[in-house]
Amino acid sequence: MSFKENMNLYSKGDKAFVYLNMFLVAMFTISTLYPFIYVASLSVSLGDAVTAGKVVLTPVDFTLAAYDKVLSDPAFWTSYANTFIYTIGGTIVSLLIIVPGAYALSRPQLAGRKYWNMMIAFTMWFNAGMIPFFLNMRDLGLLDSYIGIIIGFACNAFNIILLRNFFEAVPASFEEAARMDGANDFQVLWQVFIPLAKPALATITLFCIVARWNGFFWAMVLLRDESKVPLQVYLRQIITQLTDDDTFASTLITASYSYETVSSAIMICSIIPVLLIYPWVQKSFNKGIMLGGVKE
Amino acid sequence: MEDINNSLSTEDSILVKKSKWLVMHLKKEWQLYLMLAPTIIWFIVFLYKPMYGLQIAFKDYSVFKGITSSPWVGLEHFYTLFDNDQFIRAIQNTVMISGASLIFGFPVPIILALMFNEIINPKFKRTAQTIVYLPHFISAVIIAGIVITAFAPSTGVINLMLNAMGYDSVYFLTKPEWFRTIFVGTGIWQEAGFGSIVFLAAVAGVNPSLYESAVVDGASRFQMMYKITLPCILPTILIMLIIRIGNILEVGFEMIIMLYQPATYETADVISTFIYRQGLQAAQYDLAAAAGLFNAVIAFLLVITANTISKRVSKTSLW
């Protein structure tokens, strides 16, 4: 049934309902999109136009001055590079721990399997909390270190359980065939399970990437050294502290950027990579949510 | 005597058998345990070791003495906490903010899912979904940055619109009476779209023959939505509601840390931000750990209760 011939069969009331519904969804969609357009427009408008309150939807007096200002700040590039290190390093370490762990937990021949699984799942319900976690990181000597951020947040129960459920659903015949050929566990995982679990793996990978890219609280708490902070922490400093920054304020008189255009420009720079991977994220999370939702 | 000897030897032989089996088992399956080891070690080092550290909630923690050697003080920190107006306020704010998010935010994804389901143009549907899911993937810092920019007193779009309508500018983010509205509204804006996925999945599972017979009976689309789709996804709605109530102590505190300031603490300060300030900023680790333990225990009980109820509900439900 195509959209048009379907519509012709509708009664007047149904047609009105369909169009009203479309209108409401369109309104909601626009209101979701608008703040991003607003910030993008601010970032490419002239500072004075923004200060004068002229920018509401589209750019006024187009200029890239704010981006010039942002991109010429070495601290921006340092934090951008750090975010890439945390995102790529963190995602790789996460997968190296989660994938073999989930495989082992999915195998019926694992002794005490029920207890291992309970040990993982318990952490979803009970968590020691912020302070003991922080003190533990400090006692491990992981404050102010790349390693601390990368390893300390590598795992979580949800990802392991999601992947374990997927592995458990793989029919035993696949594994048996590989065992006949004399494959060991590592070979079975690598040659049978990983290729079969590609959608689940893609979902977990993308979740890891997005979480890493966006994470800011623990980076803010654990990192004191400015040269190690990720983009989100740098962005937070700009958003919350730029108005008090005298050296920045002194450049504003002659500049074609303003406080608002500069912070908008940094926000856009941080959103762009998310937008670039978003098509893959969107494709896989539908499946991922289903997988996770089926069982506990 | 003989009996005892006998039973000892059978116990011994069971032990021997068991250890023999374990050696054989490990010889055969050592690879599995090697694969499991990093996960288990990670959970012990990063999640279970801090649980041992939780004892400082009952101790006078000194950085120099360390967790184990600091002296016990019993429930002193809990007495201090419940004498502290700020902590009581933080509990109230947590429940208020979460409650408001639940009341105003919970129906939105359901309505959105029902509305998406009624769109017959697939391209329009796909585009709209792609856009409304997006804010979920944007960091709290950026969402807060957008809020700060849009609500700024002289240049923000909200105040510009107020001015255009003849009202004076309001410095929203310094006004305690506005904090909850802004925070809850932002949360709905960010999460409603993504939250609709669960309900859309439930909608997709509705038996199509129900609609076919409704069409034969001359039902309108609105009637079908109201009388077929909604009742059919009711179990999912109920379960999601129970889960949400179970997580009521969980608030997006990253966003609060970005948006609140001393002027708005009276409505904005929640348990986790209180812990953050007392513990990580003022270094009162033991007191903050006690607040965290209180929070974790209540949250645990709520989640367990919610889980038990949802299991019962889903058993008797359509699936």
UniProtKB/TrEMBL annotation, chain A:
The keyword Transport applies. Coiled coil: none annotated. Keywords: Cell membrane, Membrane, Transmembrane, Transmembrane helix, Transport. PROSITE patterns: ABC_TM1. Its main location: membrane. Pfam families: BPD_transp_1 (PF00528). InterPro entries: MetI-like (IPR000515), MetI-like_sf (IPR035906). It is found in: Cell membrane. SUPFAM superfamilies: MetI-like. It comes from the Bacteria. It is a multi-pass membrane protein. Residues 80-278 form the ABC transmembrane type-1 domain. The chain crosses the membrane at residues 16-37, 84-103, 115-134, 146-167, 188-213, 262-281. Belongs to the binding-protein-dependent transport system permease family. This is Sugar ABC transporter permease. It comes from Psychromonas marina. The lineage of its organism: Bacteria, Pseudomonadati, Pseudomonadota, Gammaproteobacteria, Alteromonadales.
Automatic annotation (TrEMBL), chain B:
The chain crosses the membrane at residues 30-48, 95-116, 137-162, 182-207, 228-249, 287-309. CDD domains: TM_PBP2. It comes from the Bacteria. Residues 91-306 form the ABC transmembrane type-1 domain. It is a multi-pass membrane protein. It is found in: Cell membrane. Keywords: Cell membrane, Membrane, Transmembrane, Transmembrane helix, Transport. Signal peptide: none annotated. InterPro entries: MetI-like, MetI-like_sf, UgpAE/MalFG_permease. The keyword Cell membrane applies. PANTHER family: BLL4140 PROTEIN. Belongs to the binding-protein-dependent transport system permease family. This is Sugar ABC transporter permease. It comes from Psychromonas marina.
